[in-house]
Write a structure and sequence with these properties.
The protein is mainly alpha-helical and 241 residues long. The chain has 9 helices and no strands. It is globular.
Length: 241
C-alpha cells in the first residue's frame, strides 16, 4: 500500500490530469470556462470571489516554495528553519483561512440564490468538498505539528519525496514516515489534481493572452429615450444641399 500511495498514485493522478485536459480541450472546448453566474448575483460574489482567489493563490505559492525550494537555499540567505516555520505557520494558516472563508461564502451564495443553485452540477459539489477538505486538512496538519518555536520539518521529508517524483525515483520511505495528517492531506491533494479537468477549476490552466489584444467592445445604450425611433429623412437629397 505504501508503494502504491507514494510511488504510483502521484503518477496516476498526473496521467489523469494531463489526459483529462487534452480530452476536455478537444471535445469540450466551449465548456472550458468558469460558467460564471455573476449575472444572477453580484453582492456576495464580489466579496467571496476575491477572497477565495487571493487565498488559494497564496496557498499555491506557499506550497511551491515549501516543496521545491530546498532548505539549503533559504539557509544560505539567513532564512533558517525557525523563521521559515513561523512564515509557514502564520502565513500558511492565514492564506488557508482566507481561501476557506471565500469558499464557504461561495457555497452559501450558491445554496441561497435559486438561479445559481439550479446551475450547480454534481461535479461542482464534489469539487467544493474535495477542495475544501484539502485546504482544511493542510491547515489542521500544520497547526497540529507546528508551534512558535519549532515544527515538523517537512522540507527534509515530504519536499524531498515530492522532488524525487520528477526523477522517476520516488523516495517512498520519506513520505511513509510523515505524520498521518500530512499523508491524508497529500492523498486528497492528488485526488484534487485528478478531478481538475472535469470541473470548473479547469479555467486555471487558461492563459488570458488574447484578452490583452482583444478589440474594444461597444455597448448600445438601453436608455429608452435613445432607443426611440429616429426621425424620417427624405429618400433623396439634392446635390449640394
Amino acid at each position: 500500500m505504501k508503494t502504491f500511495l507514494w510511488g504510483a498514485l502521484p503518477y496516476i493522478a498526473v496521467a489523469i490530469l494531463v489526459t483529462g485536459l487534452v480530452w476536455r480541450y478537444r471535445y469540450d472546448k466551449f465548456g472550458w470556462t468558469t460558467r460564471s453566474s455573476e449575472s444572477y448575483e453580484r453582492k456576495v460574489l464580489n466579496i467571496a470571489s476575491p477572497m477565495f482567489h487571493y487565498g488559494i493563490l497564496f496557498v499555491l505559492v506557499g506550497h511551491l516554495m515549501g516543496l521545491f525550494v530546498p532548505a539549503s537555499w533559504t539557509d544560505a540567505i539567513g532564512f533558517d528553519e525557525h523563521w521559515y516555520n513561523l512564515l509557514s505557520l502564520f502565513g500558511g494558516v492565514a492564506a488557508g483561512a482566507l481561501a476557506v472563508i471565500g469558499i464557504l461564502m461561495l457555497i452559501y451564495r450558491r445554496r441561497t440564490t435559486a438561479a445559481v443553485f439550479r446551475a450547480t452540477t454534481r461535479n461542482d459539489k464534489l469539487m467544493y468538498v474535495v477542495l475544501l477538505s484539502a485546504i482544511v486538512l493542510g491547515m489542521v496538519a500544520k497547526l497540529t505539528h507546528a508551534g512558535i518555536h519549532e515544527g515538523y520539518d517537512y522540507r527534509s521529508t515530504i519536499a524531498v519525496w515530492c522532488r524525487s517524483l520528477f526523477t522517476l525515483n520516488p523516495k517512498v520511505s520519506l513520505m511513509a514516515g510523515a505524520p498521518v495528517l500530512f499523508q491524508i492531506h497529500a492523498v486528497v491533494g492528488l485526488l484534487l489534481f485528478a478531478l481538475l479537468p472535469f470541473t470548473r477549476l479547469v479555467h486555471m490552466f487558461s492563459a488570458p493572452v488574447q484578452y490583452l489584444f482583444r478589440p474594444y467592445i461597444v455597448y448600445r445604450s438601453r436608455d429608452p429615450r435613445r432607443l426611440a425611433e429616429s426621425p424620417t429623412r427624405r429618400g433623396w437629397e439634392g446635390i449640394g444641399s
